[in-house]
Amino acid sequence: MRGDFSVLQVGALQDHVVEGLRNRFVLHKAPLAANLGAIRAIATTGKVEIGRQLIARLPRLEIISCLGAGCEGVDLAAAAERDIEVTTTSRVLAADVADIAMGLILTMARDLAAADRFVRAGHWTAGRYPLGTALGGAWLGIVGMGNIGSALARRAEAFDMKIAYHTRSPRRDLPWQHMADLTAMARQCRFLALCCPGGPATHRLVSAAILRALGPDGYLINVARGSVVDEAALVEALETGGIAAAGLDVFEDEPRPHPGLIASPRAVLLPHIGSATIETRQRMTAAMIEAIERRAAR
How far is CA 79 from CA 55, 63, 82, 107, 184, in A? Predict the structure, then answer.
């Protein structure tokens, strides 16, 4: 245990995460009654607000360690001004989230959820199920090409899909087609997968215009953040046939998805389970704690 290294827990963390932190550090929980000057690390989820005011009250703060893929709740500019390290566990959860994204692609393309209901309802005796959409040769456009986006691209290639991606600038180490124009990529691709960070820069990036570009044969997959999609525009596109279907693991208001999404037979909805495996949650906890331990050892 590092008895001289104080960590502030901000927001709810699972019991095993709290136990792991408490076993290694002096752990305090916000709101903090103890000496603010002693705090050298923050442990949080990344979605909880860590604003400039809180950062300013912690003069010895060295690291903000986030359990999850993103850190949109953190005031990154305020952290950078103080040279405060901000870490996430995106590397260790990328494979599981990419698996869920690929599962949503398969589920929508072959209409697996509805096909299951078709069999259970006894409709198979009355006729064959409608044809689905093949993945081989289809374009998949990925918004964001970090750990999750690149993991999804590798999985999609195994299904003989063609890959394009949208980021601010191309990555020279990747073989896939970079497209700076998101509208053009949505127009080119049958499947559009969101694997980008949340936050102001991507707020409602997928607008009614992007959905129109995706078109009536297009499929939207979101394993990023609910804030990346204009949900009202998405509901309208689903209701009018503006896109073929949407597969969503994240929503603007969790755990309360838009009623129009719940009502839509064109939407496949998951309860934010991208990283929800026993193995990955254990690795995420370890990665979060290890980031703080590395800082404490300096």
Answer: 7, 9, 5, 41, 35
Query: Has 272 been annotated as catalytic?
Result: yes
Catalytic residue among 212, 272, 293, 295: 272
The model's pTM: 0.93
In this predicted structure, the answer to whether residue 33 has a pLDDT above a threshold of 60 is: no
The active-site residue, picked from 49, 81, 239, 254, is 254
Question: Which sequence spans correspond to the domains of the chain?
Answer: 2-88+278-296, 92-265
Alpha-carbon distance of 139 to 163, in angstroms, equals: 6
Q: What is the mean pLDDT of residues 105-130?
A: 97
Q: Which of 104, 210, 188, 108 shows the shortest CA–CA distance to 152?
A: 104
The residue-averaged pLDDT of 138-143 equals 98
> Is 236 among the catalytic positions?
no
CB 216 within 8 A of CB 186: no
Selecting among 24, 28, 40, 225, the annotated active-site residue is: 225
Q: Which CATH superfamily is domain 92-265 in?
A: NAD(P)-binding Rossmann-like Domain (3.40.50.720)
Q: What 3-state DSSP class applies to 203?
A: coil
Q: Which amino acid does the sequence have at 289?
A: I
Q: Do domains 2-88+278-296 and 92-265 have the same CATH topology?
A: yes
Q: Options 1.10.3730.10, 3.40.50.720, 1.10.486.10, 3.40.640.10; which CATH number does 2-88+278-296 get?
A: 3.40.50.720
* C-beta separation of 178 from 201 below 8 A: no
- Please state whether beta strands 219-222 and 267-269 pair in parallel, antiparallel, or not at all (unpaired): unpaired
Any catalytic annotation for residue 128?
A: no
d(CA 131, CA 117): 16
Q: What is the pLDDT of residue 31?
A: 75
Amino acid letter at 279?
Answer: E
